[in-house]
Amino acid sequence: MRRSHVLGATVAAGAVFAVAAVRLDATLIELARVSVLGAALGALAVVDLAEHRIPNWIVGPATLVCAALLAVDGVHMELLGGLAVVTLILVLGLFWPASFGMGDVKLALLVVA
Q1: Which pTM value belongs to this model?
Q2: N or C: which end of the chain has fewer CB within 10 A?
Q3: Can you tell me the distance from the alpha carbon of 33 to that of 52, in angstroms, rounded to the nearest whole number?
Q4: What pLDDT is recorded for position 41?
């Protein structure tokens, strides 16, 4: 896997998500959050296809940035439902490892944030 592929996917996916957010009349904070999500998902797709894993060095910072932007925007009630789903995935992954891996849990948490 080449760094240039990861960088290209990061920029392209972030831009696509940003354009979609603009078309949907997102606020500036929502635009930033969606752009970070798109960039992270682009990088994660390239790494996952090459290495079959979801690396913490991508998903961790992206989740923290998205969560911080969400906190600035104000916590929404939908967040509680999303966190309940992440908790369920985590419990299933711990007690029945064939169901979900920890990469799935990290990715779900990123998407919720």
Answers
A1: 0.87
A2: N
A3: 26
A4: 95
Among the listed residues 89, 34, 43, 90, the one whose alpha carbon sits nearest the alpha carbon of residue 66: 34
* Residue 8 CA: distances (Å) to CA of 34, 52, 79, 90: 17, 19, 31, 31
CA distance 35 to 15: 7
Q: Answer yes or no: are the C-beta atoms of 67 and 38 closer than 8 Å.
A: no
What's the pLDDT score for residue 20?
95
Q: Which residues, in sequence order, are CB contacts of 90 under 8 Å at separation 6+?
A: 100, 105
Q: What are the backbone angles phi and psi of residue 33, rounded to the nearest 5°?
A: -65, -45
Do residues 43 and 9 lie in contact, with contact meaning Cβ atoms separated by under 8 Å?
Answer: yes
Q: Which two tokens stand for residue 88?
A: 């369920």
Q: In 3D, which of 33, 48, 44, 35 has the Cα closest to residue 9? A: 44
Query: Using an 8 Å Cβ cutoff, are 59 and 66 in contact?
Result: no
What pLDDT was estimated at residue 1? 66
3-state secondary structure of 8: helix
Ranges of residues in the chain with a pLDDT under 70 are 1
